[in-house]
Task: structure prediction
Amino acid sequence: MISSEKVGKRIAMLRREKQLSQEQLAEQLHVSAQAVSKWETGKSLPETATLPLLSSILGHSIDSILLPQELTVLSAVYTDGYEQQDVTHFVNQFITGSKLSLAITDHSFPESIHSDRVKLLIVKYETPSGIYSTYVLKDQLLAIDVHSKGYTLGKSELEIVHAAYGNELASRDVLGKMKHYAYFQWPHFTVDQELFPSGMGHEGNEYLLLVYLNADGIHALSCMEGERIHYSPDRTRLFADGSSRQQYIVENVARLGFAKGMDCSWAGALYTSLSAMGVDTRYEEVMGVSGACWRVAFAPVWDYSAADALVAYDYAEPAFNAYGLEASWANRLTPEERRREKQQIMESLHKGHLPVALNLRVAPEWGVITGYLDNGSTLLCRSYFDDETFNELQEDPEFREAMETSKGYLYVDHWPYKLLRIERLDAAPPALDNLFASLQVKLDSMQAGENHGYQLGYSALAAWTEGLLDHAWYQAADAGTFTRRYSVNHFCMMALNDARRSAAAYLQASLPLLPSPAAYALLSEMAAVYEQMHTLLDHFYSHMTEPAVLQTQASPKQLWDQGQREQQAELLQSVAVLERRGDELAGRLLEHQEISRG
Result:
């Protein structure tokens, strides 16, 4: 039988483990903070529809939340002391009969940490006798049952329980040295050959790995030679700062912006990041293999966000697959999570990998992080709003001096609420496979209908058309509301025009991939369909009045009259007809692929 009191205590404990306030958990669940409070005090249980998302956020199965077991892993972190992965939900699946047994290897977890540092798993678990922490190094066995008593929590000052110097290939125990150095109560020390001499036969980089216990549990910190380790003022935590990391800037990253042939900010930012990694690709190919070139979305409330590539459909995963990427998302982080994520950002930059992020400056569009100053306190970026700032301040002496320091990059204004770090791990699939995957995305996304309040595909074209023909609304609208709707319409037309231009270019470039004359003919016709669609859209869009002009007019309705709206509605209906022809051709190409494989 489910006990609301026990469930409430479990939710409260798991929430605190995730370092979430009741308000933050409520926001992620789309419920009120009062609802979360009622759960945690045992006054009510979460609604059934809320449980899958609650399970995902807390990292525990629904059964684990509603029916607490005698042995439960509260948190499990796989780490090399620099990067870390939350594997709580995964590890809990290995509990059977109140026992947990798991061999820790490179292949134990869904994702690997790709570094030459020593790796370990840190676990905090609960049994009837209390809450404990333990750790196991890679290539060791984690074995816990209800009688296991690991490290107890609550120590006021940190205690180093494991110290090793070396790397994944070979390391040596230096716990004795660390206990000796602790006697001197240093506020900080530098990892160098004087304190930790290397062996004669060592190979590769060497790192100091410290595993320590404090009131919160067990933590791991790994620093390379030359970096400095600090004790917090109350000597309860360790953190690193390397003099070599005072600043780092990836130079020569081109400016982003609209009207530069990359009007999808997500694809433009991803293309920029891939280029910095040395991936030979084009913006149109990013749009093509992701399927973003087929996208059309519309918000019936007329909002700019409808033009965002990822707002209502996942075009990111096909892109990651196409380029052989491993992606790490960091969305809506707590302050502590931001601190850890900033270290990951710095590490990515040192590899020449530019994190892709949403809402870096001015407004929620995608851009890339290009460097950092002041040991990471200041992040630098390219965003889609940089040109306005450069044009406004280019003659300002202080601005020009700041740009010399930042190598021409602007400062990040906001912590992004969506952030993506990518690593290229695997060989990319054949380009022909990516083409067929893209065609399948087209068929799926055009029929997707509604998602998160946005209309997609044919539903979007229909809703957009209906909104253009709502003559009563335009007659009744005041000047400000009318002008805003026109600006959203202009922005969405820009996005649609750019997408179909990219589709035509991607299809045309893919023609040499098809050895079969029949398949070649189908793809050639499809490319012609999208070239025709782009021609129609581009002609109309190029004659649209810039939104800024309407904002200066006392009577903006004269610049977007009923005839123009009806003309655009007819255009969108023509687009829908061409899209259906494109669907037919895409379907025949996919059938041809199946026959070829058979």
